[in-house]
Structure to design on (646 residues):
């Protein structure tokens, strides 16, 4: 009996080692090509399962190719611990600059400290760490929520009931988008926050949540503010099924392709466009300047844009 | 000495034993009804036909996964890859479901095929190696997630045909299709488990694998069938989810395996194998759905929702272990 146990344990260990081994190999694979004089930029992204992040990265890759720079990309899979290890491995590979799309405000900070200590410039893209990096390229999430909530307030004439769908509680984007929404709510005392709950950035979860809210509040709901488009689209689906969409305004953030289509069709009232392309290309530009020891902007803020039926055509890709 | 103690203990505990067995059998249903009554008192919005229909709709995808994993757990196994299978099959189905490309049967069949193949692969590795199912399906869980991302390029597969979106999002005579399919799946799974030889073999394998083998049951074949069935049901869940939210998402279904396993365990399926029923699993899934719906109606924050859910899962397992101990 005991022997079987040990055998099982060794299987577990083997599997764990195998998994760890896989991760290691992806992060160190491409580092060996440093023989030429090409600049090498290490990139660690929050999650390559997130469409917006993938878009930012695609643009970085495009820009890097145009500039003749080698990009080593790794996926932190939402784990700040992994991200710090990845940056450590970049430092060991002596890359010329690092671009980090942080997993977490605090927990990803040690990566910044380590890179700076090693004399390698590190640029934050899309969101920030609490430890100041060499430069930040991104957008102010608080502003995106202000834009969205202001649209709702104006549509409702400053009066009505709003429900808010949060992202994952405690994530930087959720905290900042809530902050922006609340700032606007304060300016409109007749705009009431009827209910709020997390939809975990997920379309299916948001749809269930909206169905439940329709049950408990029904026609009282005048508008929905969702922290991202996936949830906004889930809310739209639930409202459509209940035959209430024409009476409720839905606004969300990110302007993903599905959301743009929905705005075009008129089912989603508005979304807020965060410019992935510019974030990606500006991040590479800044990283290169920093690597070549040229002067660079410490903070590049890419402005948001409100997308409604009026201007959606300019955002839709052919 | 030891024997004497056991005898007297048995005598003393007879009444306790019958009582706990009673709880094991009807406790779940009682707890479920109690929570429903409590919610009806707390909010008038709970006990309406429309709300109940919404609960069942919301529960259906988890229930389908839970049916599949119940088969597996009954044989003493586990399948952690079902959440990833939802993503893979959803993405596969969505890829064939764009308007004006294929008839709606094609995405359905391709999705199901993907799930069945995935499940069969799980079964193959489990039966052909000495690696515990926990590890095998932990591995295939990661593989599946990767496959879904590869197939979809990391982006949601959208723009699906209306006929495809009808499968999981439509209504027939006012009843959501999800509810109809849930009932059909429930009846089919119950028949497989209770009325077929395969079903009886599942209990036998989970109860005592060596005895089952000695009595001539082809244990490997039973396990193969069970994992394949689980894959098929996960595919159905994946297709329906994709249809309901009108997009195939590579990150869909993350964590679904835990909800499904929770439903099976709350429903009285023993984690050590050999016992469990589809009715129990269905009630388990409904219980989870009712609580989450009820807490949403009461506007309770999700932090507390998670705590409540955890307490219920542990409570169910404790009840189950008491039940097993007195049965032994």
């Amino acid at each position: 009996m005991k022997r079987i146990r040990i055998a099982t344990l060794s299987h577990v260990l083997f599997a764990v080692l195998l998994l760890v081994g896989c991760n290691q190999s992806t992060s160190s694979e491409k580092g060996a090509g440093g023989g030429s004089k090409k600049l090498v930029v290490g990139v660690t992204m929050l999650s390559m399962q997130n469409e917006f992040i993938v878009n930012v990265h695609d643009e970085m890759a495009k820009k890097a190719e145009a500039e003749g720079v080698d990009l080593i990309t790794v996926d932190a899979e939402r784990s700040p611990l992994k991200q710090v290890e990845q940056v450590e491995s970049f430092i060991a590979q002596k890359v010329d600059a690092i671009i980090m799309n942080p997993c977490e405000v605090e927990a990803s900070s040690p990566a910044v400290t380590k890179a700076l200590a090693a004399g390698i410039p590190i640029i934050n893209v899309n969101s920030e760490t609490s430890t100041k990096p060499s430069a930040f390229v991104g957008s102010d999430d608080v502003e995106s929520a202000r834009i969205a909530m202001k649209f709702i307030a104006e549509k409702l004439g400053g009066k009505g009931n709003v429900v808010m769908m949060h992202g994952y509680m405690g994530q930087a984007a959720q905290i900042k988008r809530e902050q922006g929404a609340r700032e606007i709510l304060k300016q409109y005392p007749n705009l009431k926050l009827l209910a709020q709950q997390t939809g975990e950035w997920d379309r299916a979860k948001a749809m269930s949540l909206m169905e439940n809210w329709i049950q408990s509040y029904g026609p009282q709901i005048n508008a929905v503010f969702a922290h991202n488009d996936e949830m906004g689209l889930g809310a739209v689906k639930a409202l459509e099924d209940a035959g209430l969409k024409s009476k409720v305004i839905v606004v969300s953030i990110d302007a993903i392709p599905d959301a743009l289509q929905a705005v075009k069709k008129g089912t989603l009232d508005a979304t807020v466009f965060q410019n992935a392309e510019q974030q990606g290309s500006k991040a590479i530009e800044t990283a290169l300047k920093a690597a070549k020891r040229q002067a660079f902007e410490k903070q590049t803020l890419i402005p948001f844009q409100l997308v409604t039926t009026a201007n959606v055509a300019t955002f839709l890709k052919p | 000495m030891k024997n004497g103690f056991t005898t007297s203990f048995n005598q003393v505990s007879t009444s306790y034993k019958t009582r706990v067995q009673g709880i094991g059998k009807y406790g779940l249903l009682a707890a479920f009804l109690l929570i429903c009554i409590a919610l009806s008192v707390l909010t008038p919005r709970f006990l309406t036909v429309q709300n109940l229909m919404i609960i069942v709709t919301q529960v259906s995808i988890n229930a389908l996964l839970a049916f599949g994993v119940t088969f597996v757990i009954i044989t003493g196994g586990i399948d952690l890859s079902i959440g990833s299978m939802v993503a893979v099959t959803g993405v596969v189905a969505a890829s064939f479901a764009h308007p004006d490309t294929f008839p709606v049967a094609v995405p359905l069949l391709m999705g199901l095929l993907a799930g069945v193949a995935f499940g069969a692969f799980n079964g193959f590795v489990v039966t052909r190696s000495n690696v515990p199912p926990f590890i095998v399906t932990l591995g295939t869980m990661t593989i599946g997630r990767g496959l879904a991302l590869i197939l979809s390029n990391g982006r949601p597969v959208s723009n699906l045909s209306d006929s495809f979106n009808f499968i999981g999002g439509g209504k027939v005579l006012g009843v959501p299709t999800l509810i109809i399919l849930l009932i059909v799946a429930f009846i089919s799974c119950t028949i497989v488990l209770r009325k077929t030889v395969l079903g009886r073999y599942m209990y036998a394998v989970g109860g005592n694998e060596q005895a089952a083998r000695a009595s001539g049951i082809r244990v490997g074949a039973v396990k193969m069938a069970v994992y394949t069935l689980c894959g098929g049901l996960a595919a159905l869940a994946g297709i329906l989810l994709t249809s309901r939210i009108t997009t195939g998402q590579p990150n869909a279904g993350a964590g679904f395996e835990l909800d499904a396993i929770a439903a099976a365990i709350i429903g009285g399926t023993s984690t050590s194998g050999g016992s469990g029923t589809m009715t129990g699993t269905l009630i388990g899934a409904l219980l989870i759905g009712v609580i989450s719906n009820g807490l949403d109606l009461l506007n309770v924050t999700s932090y507390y929702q998670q705590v409540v859910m955890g307490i219920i899962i542990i409570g169910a397992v404790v009840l189950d272990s008491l039940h097993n101990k007195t049965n032994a």
